[in-house]
């Protein structure tokens, strides 16, 4: 009689006995998450990854078969330009297989990101760190610049007073003129307070818009001319033009810390009436207005750097239409043709602006053909349009958030989970 006491083979594995195609499906089910992995910061509590990373410790064969799936089919989110580069160093060598990433960019860090994304160095660049990149989503938080200032004028005005889709854009020069007039009054008051002894001079009248302020102060007012010796009873500091100096100092500070309205850009637009006019054939007036007011933020530079770094082939022209009204890429707005047959990664930029929800609803009513309201979050966003070959969209986050207990900055940045 044969003995029935047979011992099981310790090297036998039900998982490894399956065909490779079925094992790959098991790996995907166990290791792929619907939510992105944040690094080095912790993912929000609303993100449930449900990933069984312990499967990688089963044995060497399982590890070698599944580690590539872990990196190639998951999405990773970074919030600083150095994070992606450092992650490639501290993570497994299999992280070279990453294909999908999110970048969450704050407005103050945009220059750092632009330098990294446009770098072509092998040791520190997006293409060098992620050679197999297929999808890149950039969530750019624009803060309270440009459009929020324009929407502020909508809050005080009734809906009927706007007079159509371009009403909010027409209110911008008026609001800017009021701010500039108030600024000049503050400078004049500062000059009067700085007089040391003697009689104080009355505040000078505001300068004519057609003459630069410094030229007006030194010319018609005579503040910068030679001292003729009159009014000897007044104790003026020698060779000091307080009003002009304070104005010059405020201009220098504005160049370092630009105001909400980007004064230099808007002043140029007011001098040239054609600069504030939108193309009547352009059906994307809100998007075009946003790009015009946010030009100094650096969105165009970011798009140009991404195009030159990720799309093979040198750029043949730098003259691109930044406010093209067509979703299809034109010859000027298209990225340079690739010199090889390697696929180009998909790059999308979402510019996020937080405004009061009632203002957002009013803007949606003014631009029903341009804005699409998300059924889940009730936030509004434009369709993606080409900017130097890169897909760009404007998203308006209504504050406070629609659902109680949820952070508005989070659900606005994470809407790409649905794609």
TrEMBL record:
Biased composition (Low complexity): 317-341
Residues in coiled coil: none
Domain DUF7730: 48-120
Residues covered by region (Disordered): 317-342
InterPro entries: AN11006-like, DUF7730
Domain of life of the native organism: Eukaryota
Protein name per UniProt: DUF7730 domain-containing protein
Lineage: Eukaryota, Fungi, Dikarya, Ascomycota, Pezizomycotina
């Amino acid at each position: 009689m044969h003995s029935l006491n047979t011992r099981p083979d310790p090297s036998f594995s039900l998982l490894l006995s399956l065909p490779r195609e079925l094992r790959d499906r098991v790996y995907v089910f166990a290791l792929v998450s619907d939510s992105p992995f944040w690094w080095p910061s912790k993912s929000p509590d609303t993100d449930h990854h449900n990933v069984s990373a312990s499967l990688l410790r089963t044995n060497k064969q399982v590890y070698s078969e599944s580690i590539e799936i872990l990196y190639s089919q998951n999405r990773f989110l970074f919030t600083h330009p150095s994070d992606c580069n450092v992650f490639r160093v501290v993570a497994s060598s299999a992280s070279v297989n990453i294909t999908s990433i999110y970048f969450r960019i704050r407005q103050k860090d945009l220059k750092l990101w632009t330098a990294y994304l446009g770098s072509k160095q092998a040791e520190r660049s997006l293409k060098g760190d992620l050679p197999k990149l297929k999808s890149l989503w950039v969530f750019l938080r624009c803060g309270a610049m440009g459009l929020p200032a324009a929407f502020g004028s909508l809050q005080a005005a009734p809906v009927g007073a706007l007079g159509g889709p371009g009403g909010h854009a027409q209110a911008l020069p008026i609001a800017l003129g009021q701010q500039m007039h108030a600024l000049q009054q503050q400078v004049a008051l500062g000059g009067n307070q700085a007089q040391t002894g003697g009689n104080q001079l009355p505040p000078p009248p505001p300068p004519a818009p057609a003459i630069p302020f410094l030229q007006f102060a030194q010319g018609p007012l005579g503040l910068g001319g030679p001292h003729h010796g009159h009014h000897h009873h007044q104790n003026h500091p020698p060779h000091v033009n307080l009003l002009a100096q304070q104005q010059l100092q405020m201009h220098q500070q504005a160049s370092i810390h630009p105001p909400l309205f980007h004064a230099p850009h808007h002043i140029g637009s007011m001098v040239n009436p054609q600069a504030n006019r939108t193309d009547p054939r352009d059906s994307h007036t809100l998007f075009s207005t946003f790009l015009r007011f946010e030009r100094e933020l650096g969105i165009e530079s970011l798009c140009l750097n991404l195009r030159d770094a990720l799309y093979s082939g040198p750029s043949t022209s730098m003259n691109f239409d930044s406010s093209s009204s067509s979703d299809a890429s034109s010859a000027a707005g298209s990225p340079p043709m690739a010199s090889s047959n390697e696929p180009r990664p998909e790059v999308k930029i979402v510019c996020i602006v937080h405004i009061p929800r009632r203002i957002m609803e009013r803007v949606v009513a003014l631009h029903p053909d341009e804005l699409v309201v998300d059924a889940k979050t009730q936030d509004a966003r434009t369709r993606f349009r080409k900017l130097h070959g890169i897909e760009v969209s404007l998203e308006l986050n209504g504050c406070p958030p629609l659902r109680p207990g949820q952070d508005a900055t989070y659900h606005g940045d994470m809407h790409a989970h649905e794609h």
